[in-house]
Write a structure and sequence with these properties.
Mean pLDDT: 94
Distance between the termini: 60 Å
Order of helices and strands: EHEHEHEHEHEHEHEEHEHHH
Low-confidence stretches: none
Helix content: 40-55%
CATH superfamily of the largest domain: Tetrapyrrole methylase, N-terminal domain
Number of helices: 11
Bound molecules: S-adenosylmethionine
CATH topology of the largest domain: Cobalt-precorrin-4 Transmethylase, domain 1
Number of domains: 3
CATH class of the largest domain: Alpha Beta
Strand content: 15-25%
Radius of gyration: 24 Å
Length: 279
């Protein structure tokens, strides 16, 4: 394929092991007129390793809007630019999305050069089946974090979180406190690096696993929590209706009305209503 001018290439870079970069990523980083990166010193280390001398320009969280203008000016002049982040795929829990949106609005071509991503690497080695929901970083403040987790709890998919070492214990404690005890967790740390560890265990066992060795609390983390266990007989909509009715009516009446509305068996709804009332 001939090299494309006036194009923004979104290039994934390694998440630890410098060998994890595609041939196409290297060709693109060499061929473009400029590389927009989060941190020029960090980018230089990777580029030096591969003997790439392309000029750099900084695009980080705090200058993304102005940087987007620069990118658009370069593209308008027929130049090509690669966008990279400090690690993995740009715009995934990293700057990039706003710049990409602005470049698209300006009518320029955006081409992904796919490669490493910590969430996908963790999922690929976890052995958890089915859909997943990428939640990224949870809020740092306790209240907001718990509210976010309550909202994520019922999603019928593996939940994928990113976490930093200084918050790993409190986040895991909240996962254990707020999610069902029969879910599993995969703690994936330092993926592709020297001290890589990917451990799968019952969710309630996670705090003790982390506490057992301080090295287990070091580095970068992806946390995967398996989907909520299927609830026999009651679908999410029936549960929602039952919960609303229970707020206003006695158990028996709520179950009877929920059965009429949803078509689900009244005795099943009655049993669920008792459980919901207890919890
Ligand atoms: N754009 C990146 C990607 O594609 O995965 C993510 C960048 S985000 C700022 C950094 C977070 O990603 C870390 O705090 C950690 O949660 C996760 N992460 C990045 N590299 C990792 C690695 N080698 N092992 C485990 N988690 C990693």
């Amino acid at each position: 394929m001939p090299f494309m001018t006036a194009t923004l290439f979104i290039v994934a870079t390694p998440i630890g092991n410098l060998g994890d970069i595609t041939l196409r990523a290297l060709e693109t980083l060499k061929a473009v007129d400029a590389i927009a990166c989060e941190d020029t010193r960090h980018a230089r280390r990777l580029l030096d390793h591969y003997g790439i001398g392309t000029p750099l320009l900084a695009v980080h969280e705090h200058n993304e809007a102005q940087a987007a203008e620069k990118l658009i000016a370069l593209l308008a002049a027929g130049k090509s630019v690669a966008l990279i982040s400090d690690a993995g795929t740009p715009a995934v829990s990293d700057p990039g999305a706003r710049a990409v949106a602005a470049v698209r609005r300006a009518g320029h071509r955006v081409v992904p050069i796919p490669g490493p991503n910590a969430a996908i690497a963790a999922l690929s080695a976890a052995g958890l089946e089915g859909p997943f929901y990428f939640a990224g970083f949870l809020p740092a403040k306790v209240g907001a974090r718990r509210t976010a987790l309550e909202a994520l709890k019922a999603i019928p998919a593996t939940l994928v979180f990113y976490e930093a070492p200084h918050r790993i214990e409190e986040t895991v404690a909240d996962l254990v406190g707020l999610l069902e005890a029969d879910r599993e967790i995969v703690i994936a740390r330092e993926i592709t690096k020297l001290f890589e560890q990917i451990e799968r265990m019952p969710l309630p066992a996670a705090p003790a696993w982390l506490a057992a060795d301080e090295n287990r609390r070091r580095g970068e983390f992806v946390l995967l929590v398996s989907a909520p266990p299927p609830r026999a007989g009651l679908d999410a909509e029936a549960e929602r209706i039952l919960t609303l009715l229970l707020a206003e009516l006695p158990v028996k009446q709520a179950a009877k009305l929920a059965a009429a509305i949803t078509g689900q068996a009244r005795n099943e709804l009655y049993a669920w209503a008792l459980k919901l009332k207890d919890s």
